[in-house]
Design goal:
The chain has 639 residues and is of the alpha+beta class.
Length: 639
Amino acid sequence: MLPALLIACKGEPSPPLPPPPLEQPTLVGSQACLGCHTEQASGWEGSHHALAQRPLGPDERAALLARPDVRADGGDLLLGAEGQRITGALGVDPMWQPLVAAPGGRTQVFDEAWDVDAEEWFSVFADVRAPGDWGHWTGRGMTWNTMCGECHSTGFDKRYDSVSDTYTTTVSEEGVGCEACHGPGSLHAADRTVLLRRPEMTDCAACHSRRSTLSDEPGEDFLDQYALQTLAEPGLYYPDGQILDEVFEYASFRSSVMHREGVGCQDCHDAHSGRLVREGDALCLSCHETHEDFQRHDRHPDGVTACVDCHMPETTYMQRHPRRDHGLIIPDPALTQEAGVPNACERCHDEGTDWVASRAAAWWGSERTERQERARALAGLSGVSGLVAASADPDPYWRASAMGLLADHVSRSEAASRLLVGMRDPDPLVRMKATTALSGRLGVGEPAVLQAFQERLADPVRGVRIQAARSLRQPTPELLTYLDLSADLPGPLYERAVLLMDRDPAAAEPLLERAARYSDGDVEVRMALAIVYSRRSKSAAAEEQLVAVTTLAPELAEGWYMLGLHRSGQGQPDAALVALDRAAALSPQSPNPPFARATILRDQGRVIEARLAAEQAASLGHRQSAALMRSLETTPGSP
């Protein structure tokens, strides 16, 4: 101590003391909050959030014991002949599903649910699923650890071990507790002046959206942690934004004019109870009637319809769970006529689409709005030029969706040019979708495209950086972290293997084998596995995978083409020609099957047939056809 004191006495500054270590907040549970926050507690207790997942209570036990396949064993309830323990309930109203313990630390969600109002069991699936299927309740598609736990509990930690394919999952609290939205509360519990965060719309979006988890480290933007699925992904939405598959609420609401005008979740919903802040039309009119240009526009008699009946129609999922569309759509019967997109009018009127469309045109006119033109573009009714125009929409969500749909036209210069602009858009969702779509152009080797992808590798938003790395197949640390987080799913396993296939096929092989087991018939995985087997001189195994592909997807031309190439390489030219002929019939515009056929026929000495096949390949644009035809001019046997 003396030297430091002497230095200080001479008037020289003493070295600064290091700052005290910052205490990291920890989770304390909702019960630590409720004693002080009584007003919030009264709304939250008994809410859908609080009861999103819970232990079995007396009512749940009674409903389960009424089933012939459930029996009591002491305090436990056991399901089926195997005696699997029922550990809890998922959901609360209008239905809940039993949670069942399974080997390897798994919890499976049972495929029958209890209808709370009807007081009966029913299957949540419209189709029949068998044990071993991905979507059967015993399959990976119904594993709570992967599919449900993150949003139905608080403090969820999956803890998946990919080597043993087991879970040691933990949660701090069943159900969606206070800290799921406000963050860990230990520091606030000890000192009320330490404030917790106020949830924003993106906190709701983490669970109320179709998305994949990119990182377990939150960032400043939603896309730092999640990849949002939009209208650009097939099978999720109709072209006008209406919900098709079970997509929850956030992306739909983000597509709406309400979102663009600054309306948020808590303008309509109480944050703690989840209930509406006003009932019926009063909720909508509390804002809309304050607008100077607002006019009541319902042509129905009073009391027949509500605002939400036309603008937020219900779709029933899981057979008995109706959910409202949060896109705030304006019904468009004309789009029903042109593209088969449903309209809310026909949920009540059974006079037919033409009648509804004529009445709507008589009331509102037939001139199309910009919104209607955009829907037609996204439905593919106005060609590439329509999609290019839609990709300049003022709303970032719609720009992003149009960018994603331009992926099918990436070979067209106007689409590629527009996607290049999208990769530098101010909105990260637009940049992400443009980066995904333009990846199909990377093989051309255009400097401007390559430069744009290199720029996106340094994007300020993690999700865009990861997408650029995926497109470039660059195993960046962030990309590998994303893939490791979902190593229990076949898609990320396949993607991780693709990164290794060219450099280390031996390392890619077990990943693809696991992906094939997990996916139960994904043909893309099987084709990649066949390539790896072939590179590792496992010809019989490669043949088995390709035969499986042509069996599972007999209309897939690429499967037959790969089988033809494989059999040609194995010295089976006749069998190869059969497979290539099938590929050509399925994809008559592809130059690859006739070119491969020409080379086999040349090697068999069937020069005239080979020349015809080569000419066909050349007419379809195969770059090497000219050289093949020149070689055929000097091939023995040529006339």
